[in-house]
Amino acid sequence: MITVLAGGVGAAKFLQGLAAIRPPNEIHVIVNTGDDAQFHGLYVCPDIDTILYTLAGLGDPERGWGICNDTFHCQEALRRLGEAAWFQLGDQDLATHLYRTRLLREGANLAEATEALRQQMSRRVHHPLPHLIPMTNDPAPTRVRTSAEWLSFQEYFVKLRQEPEVLEVDLSSAARLQNGPAPGVIESILTADAVVVAPSNPLISIGPILAVPGVREALRTTRARIGAISPIIGGKALKGPADRMMASLGFGSTAAAVAELYRDFVDVFVMDQQDAALRPEVESKGMQAIVTQTVMTSAGSKEQLARTMLGALRDDLR
Ligand code: FO1
What we know:
Elements: E1 2-6, H1 9-21, E2 27-31, E3 37-39, E4 42-44, H2 46-55, H3 73-80, H4 91-105, H5 110-125, E5 131-134, E6 143-145, E7 150-152, H6 153-159, E8 168-170, H7 172-175, H8 185-190, E9 194-197, H9 206-211, H10 215-221, E10 225-229, E11 232-233, E12 236-237, H11 242-248, H12 255-261, E13 268-272, H13 279-283, E14 288-292, H14 299-313
Parallel strand pairs: 1-2, 1-9, 2-5, 9-10, 10-13, 13-14
Antiparallel strand pairs: 3-4, 6-7, 6-8, 11-12
Bound molecules: ligand FO1.
Residues 7-8, 35, 44, 46-47, 49, 65-66, 87-89, 93, 154, 157-158 line the site of ligand FO1.
């Protein structure tokens, strides 16, 4: 069994490669829910949905969120009613949020609602999707502080287009959960044959998962070898604000700075060819450094990255 810690777009692409070379039912994905929010009374889980849509082949590769060729008629109608419409929900995407919200209202927890969505989506596309486990069933909203104010994650990310400088990230909701991690989170780390930290933002995508009580401890104690892939290439994030956030929070915006954040549990750190010169710095942290092509532009490059990562973790997964 392979367990992956995942945020949104970068993780979804890596998982496409992984699901192409390993049986999906052997893959367990622990997903960040710090981005989750309610809009128009509906419960929206951006990272869960990005992974589900991408693995089902329904995602919009250009935007990185929502469903390909979706329409926005409902959104327009809401706007005409005077509703805040800065967070765009496509018509087909809305069906996901209506379905999830109904299940939650009827008493399901988020893991159960996610499993129901995974099963429906698997049926629709005629192939099984990997197991998705939300990091927790409790609300765990991430908040960020800019020079002006504290913001909800989506206010910062979508409404303000990640423009303000981030001076602090608040993961205290993830750290103080009423019910702790969702069932299966700790077990899937402890019983995995290999664990992979996907190329997601270490501060706002992987950070919330690591803040969930017991997760970091499980990563430190599992017998599985753990690999991480840098989302920073040549000092820049391919998508999103990871590079600017790493810099403004004082970590430095290099692949080596990402390795530093995972230093206490990662065995193998995979970084891009552009960062070959950082190899000694990463290895000085007690990790094996692998330098390879990490930009995932084609099905082949996604599979190759997954193969390289698994091969470095276990000979028999090569
Ligand atoms: N990102 C945007 O930049 N603008 C949007 O209007 C937007 C809508 C949206 C709707 C559903 C969904 O699941 C994700 C959506 N995202 C949107 C992406 C999302 O806010 C971020 O990509 C993640 O939270 C960061 O990982």
